[in-house]
Amino acid sequence: MKEDHLPLSGLDFALVGPGRVGASLALWAVARGASCLAVVGPHGSPRGRELGERLGVEFVGSLELTPEAAKLVLIAVPDPAIGEVARRLASPTRRRSVALHASGAFGAGVLAPLAAAGCRVGTLHPLRAFPVTEEDVTAAAGIFFALDGDPEARALGRRLAEAFGGESGVVGDELRPLYHFAATLAAGGAVTLLATAQALGRRLGLPAAALHGYGQLARGAITAALSAPDPAAAITGPAARGDLATVERHLAALAAAAPELVPLAVELARAALARCADSGPLEPAQRALLERLQRADLLDRPKDRVLTSDRPERA
Fold first, then answer.
1. N or C: which terminal CB in the chain sees fewer CB atoms within 10 Å?
2. Do β-strands 144-149 and 120-126 pair in parallel, antiparallel, or remain unpaired?
3. Burial class (CB in 10 A: 0-12, 13-18, 19+), 6
4. Which residues contact 269 (CB under 8 A, 6 or more apart)?
């Protein structure tokens, strides 16, 4: 496809924040025909300089020098810094620009200083983990992008999402806290559970192959959940089956070896049964287990201690 026929041809943008998310979005945009005018980041940032060199543009170590001619200012800085970045970028000379931030935690309201200066503001949050910079735009295929903000900002967000091969929808300011929490469950929460399973296995002295096996087990379960019409249908394990005896043995063993994990185990079992109940009435065994899980004495255990070591404690 000729460059002038690419979906983002004619779009000039400046990137503020050359981290993994910002770099990925910038590389995707350029691959689809947009032109990057500058990369803006902390003074002396090696990552910023490297990205600027790759895109053939200047790396700018000062927010005040962000090109004002850019039709789009793409802000991909850490969540706590967004408001201050918006304040420092605010200028009446940007009133013809659109500013989009890439955070899932906040809606467009956090860009209020830019809006007050006449800029159209919004969000473009890719619902994806970025453990590394994703250089190939094909990595964006199928990603959901959460939009918010002024009509012009949302329209540009949709254009970007479509150009990347993703999907988009509006997630307003009032929904952002729980939208973002659900995202942390799906990504960080899932990885935290795997890391906790492996930490427990190391504490028990299990071989490395068993720890790797937990990872393979998680991979298979997630794959099955994604291929099912409803991920809840892929939930397995004793809690989902209503196996009261096995769950009680698990909890008793945890209370003795890792008591700080008992509340987590109880809440996971409750959540599994709640998701089973979403698709129909619980079976008698499942109801019996749920009733047992509601009993306060289930959480009677030694004082919590944090899992700080993977090795058994010495006498």
1. C
2. antiparallel
3. middle
4. 239, 247, 289, 293
Give the mean pLDDT of 181-197.
Answer: 96
> Are residue 142 and residue 23 in the same domain, yes or no?
yes
155 and 205 part of one domain = no
Residues 6+ apart with CB under 8 A from 280: none
Question: What is the pLDDT at residue 299?
Answer: 57
Q: Are residues 155 and 295 in the same domain?
A: no
Is the domain of 184 the same as that of 242?
A: no
Give the integer Cα–Cα distance in Å for 135 and 114.
29
pLDDT exceeds cutoff 90 at 172: yes
Statement to judge: residues 98 and 148 lie in one domain: yes
pLDDT-derived band at 262, boundaries 50, 70, 90: very high
Residue 314, domain member (yes or no): no
- Among 11-20, 59-68, 210-219, the minimum mean pLDDT is found in 59-68
The pLDDT of residue 311 is: 38
Is 301 part of any domain? yes
Q: Work out the average pLDDT over 216-243.
A: 95
Residue 166 sits in the same domain as residue 179: no
Query: What does the pLDDT read at residue 296?
Result: 55
For residue 248, is pLDDT > 60? yes
Q: Assess whether 164 and 68 both reside in one domain.
A: yes
DSSP state string for 268-292? HHHHHHHHHHHTSPPPHHHHHHHHH
188 DSSP assignment: I
Q: 97 lies in which domain range?
A: 8-171
- Nearest CA to 119 out of 61, 162, 78, 75 is that of 75
| Same domain? 263 vs 289 | yes
CA distance 265 to 128: 27
